[in-house]
Amino acid sequence: AQKVTQAQTEISVVEKEDVTLDCVYETRDTTYYLFWYKQPPSGELVFLIRRNSFDEQNEISGRYSWNFQKSTSSFNFTITASQVVDSAVYFCALRGNQGGKLIFGQGTELSVKP
Amino acid sequence: GAGVSQSPRYKVAKRGQDVALRCDPISGHVSLFWYQQALGQGPEFLTYFQNEAQLDKSGLPSDRFFAERPEGSVSTLKIQRTQQEDSAVYLCASSLRLAYNEQFFGPGTRLTVL
Question: Which site among B29, B44, B69, B103 would you substitute to test the A interface, given the most A Cβ atoms closer than 10 Å to its Cβ?
Answer without folding.
Answer: B103
